[in-house]
Amino acid sequence: MGIRLSGISIRCGIGLLALATCFGQTVIENPKKPSSPAAGRSIKLVEQMRIRDDGKEIVFKYPGYLQIGNDGSICFANGFEHFKYDAQGRFVYRIVKSGQGPGEAQRATKALLTADGVMIQAIDPPKMMRFGPKGDYLGEDRTTTTDLYEFVTLKDGKIYAFLEETPPWNDVPRRDYYEVPYSLCVLSPDLKDIRKPFQFPYRWYLGRGFGWQQARFDFAYKDLQTIYVVHGIDYRIDVFNAETNKVERTITRKYDKVKRPPDPREQRPDYNGPPPLEFYYDINKVLVAGDHIWVITSTRDERQSRLVDVFDARGRYIDNFYLEFPAKFTPVGLMLGRVALKDGFLYTVDEDAEGFFSIAKYEIRDKLKR
User: Fold this and answer.
1) Strand-pair category, 150-155 with 137-142
2) Of 64, 80, 241, 368, which has the fewest Cβ atoms less than 10 A away?
3) Separation between Cα atoms, residue 348 and residue 64, nearest integer Å
């Protein structure tokens, strides 16, 4: 079926579902300003804990895929390896060794925390590995899939995940913007049964044999009936029900886009990339905060603190505030895999002035509890 954007249609190697019948059930259009009289205040993040490497046996090269367990434990990837620290910041395990054997992998891997420990997908070699809560190796299933999934949850023996489909590089008629599916997948734990009941459109700029992602994809999981999905450049959050495979409502608000400064690389005569973007993407990250939704936007104040919008469970714009991080540390990127919110604490992957990475746990100091 054709994939269309800007009046151009291309062929893709998978069947795109009838998106027009699945989107736009209810659109909640919010005003530019929230209802709270305290909106626009600054909220300080107070460091409670920071996990650093030792620079010898353990070196954080580029940590990501940050996940917080129900017991407050902190799990993240570091290359193909995976680390776990307990709620007090004490080292628990370092798993996945380099190699081709049991409990080993090369290249990228992805993890899914479960009640029994952690499941880790590898694509070199392709398999799904299982480890206990203390890092003990429990076994693995070899697979044939080389797609790397963004795991959502394990429920009733089924894994729910998102997958960025490979663009049809060789089928584009000319360089332009195209929509490529981002699939919601339902998987068996051994990855041998794969279903794709729903697909979100996701913007790429493609030429023959190459391309660039030109949109933000992000999600926040509350339960199977409520998954908040961002898959574009504008201020839009789709509330997806994975039980009915429908977008049940869409949350938007009037938003002043943030101008993007010129990139010197895009001004060079030999630049061969996509057309320079005029604005930043409106949304960086969406988070579930109890009964509320936090949306980290591209707006900053004069201190470079990031504006966070707050919506209630019905999608009404009720509040906003600026997150003020401590000096000396900069979040690597407030986006998928590098920031998490759990039990009133914000966790981020940070980088200091010397380029060293660490994992921070921050208390959110706000008189108005969210």
Assistant:
1) unpaired
2) 368
3) 9
Q: Is the pLDDT of residue 9 over 90?
A: no
Task: Give 147's DSSP letter.
Answer: P
308, with CB counted inside 10 A (0-12, 13-18, 19+), is buried
Q: What are the CA-CA distances from residue 92 to residues 72, 80, 102, 217, 329 (Å)?
A: 13, 17, 20, 31, 25
Residue with tokens 């998954």: 227
How confident is the model over 83-98, as a mean pLDDT?
96
Tell me what pLDDT residue 366 has: 84
Give the three-class secondary structure for 336. Answer: coil
CB proximity list for 354: less than 8 A, separation 6 or greater: none
> What's the start-to-end Cα distance of the chain, in Å?
44
Question: Which residues touch 314 (CB under 8 Å, ≥6 apart)?
Answer: 28
- Return the minimum-mean-pLDDT range out of 19-33, 189-203, 329-343, 345-359: 19-33
Residues 6+ apart with CB under 8 A from 239: 226, 227, 228, 229, 247, 248, 249, 250, 251, 315
How many other C-beta atoms are found inside a 10 Å radius of the C-beta of residue 155?
13
Give the whole-angstrom CA distance, residue 63 versus residue 32.
35
Cα 168 to Cα 149: distance, rounded to the nearest angstrom: 19
Pair 65, 79: CB distance under 8 Å: no
143 phi and psi, to 5 degrees?
-130, 180
Query: Could you write out the DSSP letters of every residue in 64-117?
Result: EEEEE-TTS-EEEEETTEEEEE-TTS-EEEEE-EESSSTTEE-S-EEEEEETTE
Cα separations in angstroms, 153 against 74, 93, 215, 220, 247: 17, 22, 24, 11, 18
Residue type at 12 in one-letter notation: C
What type of residue is 51?
Answer: I
Residue type, 41: R
**Residue 83 tokens, joined:** 């680390």
CA 343 to chain centre: 19
Confidence of residue 136 (pLDDT cuts 50, 70, 90): very high
